[in-house]
Write a structure and sequence with these properties.
The protein is of the alpha+beta class and 192 residues long. The chain has one domain: Roll (Ubiquitin Conjugating Enzyme), CATH 3.10.110.10. It is built from four helices and seven strands; from the N terminus they run H-E-E-E-E-H-H-E-H-E-E. Strands 1, 2, 3, 4 and 5 form a five-stranded mixed β-sheet that branches. It is flat, with a radius of gyration of 21 Å. The N and C termini lie far apart (67 Å).
Length: 192
Amino acid sequence: MSYETNEELVKEELESLAVIFPELTVDQDHKSGSISIPIKTDEPLQIVYNNTIDHPLYSMKISDLPPILLHFKLPLGYPYDEPPEITLKTEESWLSEEKLDEIKKELINLWDQFHDAVLYSIIDYLISGSEDLFGVVDLKKPFKVATTKLITKLDKFNKGQQRKEFDSRIFTCEICQMEVSGVKMKICQTEH
């Protein structure tokens, strides 16, 4: 396939992705882009910080984790002869480099299967895979973090996301029966 044809295919793919994913940042000149994928698990994940094996110092359950950041660059041989160059990162480095490498291998495997335009499939994989942490973290087992600073940041991020979600919802006031935005409501923590 000619260089001009590849250029046209890449340009079309990037333009289409920018429409499908408005949060995607695309640089047509450098054939690159990036997107931040929110992480919200189906089931709450128990996060623990241990100073010993058997006795966690801190433990909490959270569903919202800092996003995974995907950056890609398309080489001249993309889409038929070369895979996209992919970099994955997480804010606060909550997911280890080894786990990010496992995810990256799965993304490159998508290209290996088709040798075609796969950026949509890569982004879709990350979005749908975020619900179970891409299969690289066992949601049934406690997720161990290395520092109290990290567990504090994860807790703060989770609470911030829960607040944003609450604020964006509409509730019916139990007293006046009017619909009220979550921004104007208070969250009450009750145990009954």
